[in-house]
Write a structure and sequence with these properties.
single chain; 731 residues; alpha+beta; Beta-galactosidase, Chain A, domain 5; Immunoglobulin-like; 10-stranded antiparallel sheet; 14 helices
């Protein structure tokens, strides 16, 4: 078993292939303490690390300093109000207005496998791939039971954590904070790694020295946002890309979140993660349960590369469920940057015809096909085909596209409603709003109150009716504004604090229904481009639109941050129009293809209007995609150089699992005068294998050891924004 209980020492030891996580029960009051998380240990008997053999000692030996004990003991799930002054994971409000909680260990359960989380996305495991520990804790005064759930994977260095709260008391309580995990440990000269951004600048990597007080990431925008990503890592200051200790925390959730690190007066670090407590208040009735979302934790001593590989393997094998997860995705062309709202059947078919001639495999019809939507001010909610544009209806268009040999996909924004729509005229109460206040518009739209069953049912049937009407094989599910005006006409006053979480659960319910009814559908989630790119959404869709910034140079930074924790196969990436519609930059067509290759690959341009020179390159790029996609989708990703850091060039590599081949993508962003070549050292190869560079003029053969330690020379390329692909194959 990956989880073992040592009864004599009252120690739980959880092992993954290369790490150990150890929990201890101490004192007569059965406090649950964090003992150790790090490199795999042979021994379990390390309870001394909790410091209970020194002052202030456990309360049974020194109750006069009880508060001092609570404020320094490494807690597994810290509560509030009774002496631990550090940031807590769990707070309540009782009928009497009190918020104090104290949890004690009662019992445990160890079993093979991993539980599903009711209504929530979560990692999964087949039989024999995972063992789970459930620690039942209790506050006897309140009658609250709290189950701490830990799952240790046997094929990847991941511990998954969540919490289930059960009210066994005599009256309802209100949960005002219910986080999913905590790790208390000694400071190791940590730096905090997070990812920040904005629309079109998502997942920018940032490092901060962990100082005293609180630091972290958060969103209370109703979604995992452009601005902050639900991920953080603690890395030792001397850790590099290839070596050193790194602790990763990633939240499998698509709503409000907080990830927080606290350094206290005793040089201890407390890292917590979970649903953001801002505007969160959940009424827990007698005998009711509340399940927190999951945090997936990684420890590695192999630097950032080691963390990346663990997350990639976890998500590829234990999160994404789609039948497409191990398949090439069809090369699509999306008409958005080609036409925006100005299109009709003839225009779409012209794009489709030319696309088919050049090897593209799917046409995606983006925004503007429904209601009277000729701009972004109207019709959201009115999911009826505009036959003024789509002559003869949707099925006729899809059939014609299929006759050309292309699949067909369609865009929706199901969570929104326009004031200028029939739906809003009929049901103005279906939008989130606060009585007495004028609603806050964004993009001239409101957010549907999906916490209501009638709204969810109407929304689902509106989507499903369209999908049933024609051979639609792909859906882009968009969400183009964040949540405000949080009020529901249906929920009572004491449940208005549940709206944010109920909304996320509703989105999950809709997408689960969609995948159950249309199991062969390729679903691509999207939110204003790159928001709501999180593990929760990956549970329902194998790919997510990475960013509305389609510029190849800007994508280098965005894709670097994304690939830090997500497999390349999850990133929607397209060759876009130039000058780029976001930044006005013109990048060579060839380079745009190289950058988009590190993703799902597609086109976002008017293929009928681009230059003949560029158009002739499309069949070459299609061939390139089919040649390398299996490697890109399944191989191990390595970061070699970062344009974000050096400001001149970018370089990354994908290596086959059997070390038989490697693909290096090199992009020279800015040329330099009087500059020669650069030495690039590869990673992840077999040091004993012999490799040759495919397509090279010479027949030179390199040992893997040479390529990794001595490297190769890449010549300086003439001009800016130029790229090269280097494909090494076993000789």
């Amino acid at each position: 078993m990956a989880v073992v209980y040592h009864e004599k020492e009252r120690i739980f030891k959880l092992d993954t292939p290369n790490t150990s996580y150890i929990i201890g029960i101490v004192d007569e009051e059965n406090f649950v303490g964090h003992v150790y998380y790090g490199k795999k240990l042979k021994d379990h008997n390390v309870g001394y690390l909790m410091g209970t053999e020194e002052a202030p000692f456990v309360p049974s030996k020194n109750n006069r300093d009880r508060v001092s004990f609570l404020d320094s003991f490494p807690m597994e799930y810290p509560c509030s109000g009774l002496g631990d002054y550090r940031g807590s994971c769990f707070e309540v409000r009782t009928a009497g207005g009190h918020n104090a909680v104290s949890l004690s260990y009662v019992s445990h359960r160890i079993y093979a496998g991993k539980p599903k989380l009711s209504g929530l996305p979560a990692t999964f495991a087949k039989e024999g791939e995972c063992d789970t520990l459930e620690l039942l804790c209790e506050d006897k005064v309140l009658g609250l039971q709290v189950v701490l759930i830990y799952s240790a994977f046997k094929d990847v260095d991941v511990i998954a954590r969540s919490v289930k709260i059960i009210n066994k008391g005599s009256e309802a309580v209100y949960l005002t904070k219910a986080l999913s995990c905590c790790v208390d440990m000694n400071n190791q000269d940590f730096e905090l790694l997070t990812m920040h951004g904005s629309w079109a600048r998502e997942r920018m990597i940032e490092y901060r020295k962990v100082g005293h007080g609180y630091q972290g990431v958060e969103s209370f925008r109703g979604e995992s946002s452009h601005q902050d990503h639900p991920f953080m890592a603690l890395k030792q200051k001397n850790a590099t890309q290839e070596s050193g200790s790194v602790y990763g925390f990633h939240f499998v959730y698509s709503g409000n979140f907080i990830g927080q690190v606290e350094l206290n007066q005793f040089d201890m670090v407390r890292a917590v993660m979970g649903i953001h407590p801002e505007n969160f208040c959940w009424k827990l009735e007698q005998n009711a349960e509340f399940q927190t979302p999951e945090v997936v934790m990684v420890y590695t001593e192999d630097g950032l590369d080691g963390m990346t590989h663990n997350y990639h393997e976890l998500y590829r094998n234990h999160l994404i469920r789609s039948e497409y997860k191990n398949k090439k995705r069809p090369i699509l062309i999306n008409n958005w940057e080609a036409t925006y709202f100005d299109f009709n059947t003839e225009k779409l078919l012209a794009i489709a015809k030319t696309a088919a001639e050049h090897g593209i495999e799917m046409l995606v019809m983006d925004d503007g096909w429904f209601g009277h939507r000729n701009d972004d001010n109207t019709s959201l909610g009115d999911w009826e085909v505009n036959e003024t544009k789509i002559t003869g209806g949707l099925k006729a268009l899809v059939d014609e596209v299929n006759k050309l040999g292309l699949k067909f996909g369609i865009w929706f924004e199901p969570e929104m409603i326009s004031p200028d729509s029939n739906l809003y005229k009929e049901h103005p109460d279906w939008a989130f709003q606060i009585p007495g206040r004028v609603g806050s518009l964004c993009r001239n739209q409101y957010v549907l109150d999906l916490t209501r069953e009638d709204v969810r049912e109407h929304t689902y049937e509106s989507i499903a009716k369209i999908l049933r009407s024609a051979n639609i094989e792909y859906v882009k599910w968009d969400m183009n504004r964040q949540l405000t005006d949080i009020g529901s006409f249906e929920l009572p006053a004491d449940r208005q604090g549940e709206i944010y979480h109920r909304y996320v659960l509703a989105v999950y319910e809709l997408q689960e229904r969609l995948m159950q009814e249309f199991p062969h559908l390729l679903l691509e989630n999207c939110s204003g481009g790159g928001a709501r790119f999180d593990p929760g959404m990956l549970y329902y869709s194998p790919q997510i639109w990475c960013s509305d910034d389609t510029d190849a140079v800007e994508r280098l930074k965005i894709q670097e941050g994304t690939a830090l924790v997500y497999p390349l196969s999850t990133m929607g990436a397209h060759v876009s129009d130039c000058p780029n519609h976001t930044v006005g930059r013109s990048t060579p067509f060839e380079t745009r293809g190289y950058v988009a290759l590190a993703g799902t690959f597609g086109y976002e341009l008017d293929i009928t209007k681009i230059s003949e020179e560029d158009r002739k390159m499309i069949p070459e790029q299609v061939k390139m995609y089919h040649t390398y996609n299996d490697l890109v989708r399944e191989g191990d990703y390595y970061r070699i150089a970062s344009y974000r850091e050096n400001h001149y060039f970018d370089c990354y590599e994908v290596v086959a699992k059997d070390k038989s081949e490697a693909l290096v993508t090199y992009v020279q962003v800015l040329n330099r005068p009087n500059y020669h070549s650069r030495t690039i050292c590869l990673k992840g190869l077999d040091p004993e294998k012999r490799y040759k560079l495919e397509g090279a003029e010479n027949e030179r053969v390199y040992l893997g050891d040479t390529l990794m330690n001595a490297g190769i020379r890449v010549e300086n390329l003439w001009g800016d924004y130029k790229g090269r692909l280097l494909h090494f194959v076993e000789a």
